[in-house]
Amino acid sequence: MKRLFRGLGLGALGCLLLASAGLMGAARAEDEIRIGAIYPLTGAAAGTGVELKAAAELAAAIVNKEIPLPGNLAAGAGMPNLKGAKIKLIFGDHQGNPQVGATEAERLITQEHVVALIGCYFSNVTATASQVAERYGVPFLNASSSSTPLTERGFKWFFRTSPHDDLFVANFYDFLKAVEQKKGVQLRKLALFNENTLWGGETTKIEVKLAEEQGFTVAEKILYPAKSTQMTSEVQRLKAADPQVLMQSSYLGDAILSMKTYKELGFAPPMVLANDAGFSDSEYLKTLGKDGNFVLSREVWALDLADRNPLIKQVNDLMKGRNGVNLNGNSARVFTGVAVLADAINRAGSTQPEAIRKALQETNIPADQIIMPWKGIKFDEKGQNSLGTGIIVQVQNEQYRTVWPFDIATADIVYPFPKWEGR
């Protein structure tokens, strides 16, 4: 056997292992459906990863009927087409490292024999892990990475429920123009402050492109090193640029550090418009308290929309009861991703990868069966959910309030961003 393995190339060996995994998956089909979930469970983003893990486990518990199904949530509850099989989540820790993410994806496929993967929050890790899944022919559902190129690679096995950054950045400019009209102000001078991995880099390109097309001026553009330990020089440059709007893409540690540095240096542009991620993480406000107020952020979910969708409160109450925290935009997307994947596996009536892939392609979930403020979930030919939409929230009194689109807003925008000394 050792000689046989030596003689096989990596691709052939992978196929052999995958065939073995498929056989084991089929053997378990009636009692256990193994799904790999790859998130940052240690390292700088561990706090985020813990919440994502909790949201995934909540969705699995609902599917497994350990918790009554909330309302008409689309979640494949009970897996009736697989004789009541139970979802078993097998977690991988990518530590914020793309190569580790790829290694974890391979481990989950070849050693844990998962029938599908979900992950990875960081766009650059999702890129490498999904390449492994593509090579092995295993469905990969991405619930929370927004870098646009992820669905531009021509992959057959990749599906994304969340909207992408092309949409989110376009929302930025639509929002700015709407605020200009409503408030009678000018918001044309921008500064861009984004982390320098795949997500931040691609977001910067889109922001610059749309600024040029829509009559905005980029006065300063900074791509800072991800996981920075100090931002003094960068913030001094931003302050010197004197922007009317600061657009920022940061994960948790960077978001917290930047806000502390803004206060320290007295930097308070009229508007801080964040790109979700670290600014919507529960630890953001736990750490900063009132100093986290007044930041605006693009979002995909908000608790204050529960009056419009009863499912939001029902599911959030379950999350709060089990884990002591509310859902946020990050964890709500992961909850939704696991529910969508379980629904597809149930409709497939099989744990075979091709059957699951076909069921994902045929997904058509209406808006009233999800907790997201989207028009529904339906994948296009690239694997991108074509019905996702974005909102803008603002932190007011240490709570996230929906402020745009105006027709669904629960609060008026606080403008301008208050000076630190006047709070």
From TrEMBL:
InterPro entries: BCAA_transport, Leu-bd, Peripla_BP_I. GO terms for biological process: amino acid transport. CDD domains: PBP1_ABC_ligand_binding-like. The keyword Signal applies. Residues 32-384 form the Leucine-binding protein domain. Transmembrane segments: none annotated. Residues 1-29 form the signal peptide. Keywords: Amino-acid transport, Signal, Transport. Belongs to the leucine-binding protein family. This is Branched-chain amino acid ABC transporter substrate-binding protein.
